[in-house]
Amino acid sequence: MIYSLKRSQNLPISLDSSWDFFSDPRNLQNITPPDMGFEIISGAERKMHPGQIIQYIVRPVAGFKTRWVTEITHVQEKKFFVDEQRFRPYALWHHKHFFREIENGVEMEDVVDYKLPFGLLGRMVHPVLVKPRLQAIFDFRREKLQEVFGKYPGE
Fold first, then answer.
1. Is the model's pTM score more than 0.85?
2. InterPro entries this protein is in (predicted)?
């Protein structure tokens, strides 16, 4: 089964500023919960581009450490980029990041399509472990981005 997670957030910054921040892979570490033990191993030396391979160490659950390899497959500057998992921990990870200029800022939208490994076991742990963890990661990201860039008027 393929699951989806969709999130959007408005920030009071320019499209240029948002693109500069999100197209630098090194900033991902700053908006990832510390308990994930997120560490970039390689591939973040340059601004995001198609074909870029980025390797990380992550701890998605306490006591479990794994290497995660993603590829930036599509980039349309100041509009969107896509990262796809090439190695662990998911059976499928396809993450689209969209940016749209709005009045007084930018709207960012994340669309993640993912599939868990381990068949029935993966489907069983999804609602109690994986889905809540992903939601918590994106909640943390939302709060951290508001800390860094401020709240969008009216939110």
1. yes
2. START-like_dom_sf
Asked if residue 77 belongs to a domain, the reply is yes
Tell me the Cα Rg of the chain.
Answer: 15
Whole-angstrom distance, CA of residue 133 vs CA of residue 16:
31
Question: What's the confidence (pLDDT) of residue 62?
Answer: 73
**Per the structure, how many domains does the chain have?**
1
Task: Kindly report the CATH number assigned to the domain that includes residue 108.
Answer: 3.30.530.20
Which whole number is the average pLDDT over 77-82? 98
Distances (CA, A) of 35 to 58, 86, 127: 9, 23, 20
d(CA 32, CA 34): 6
Average pLDDT value for residue range 86-115: 97
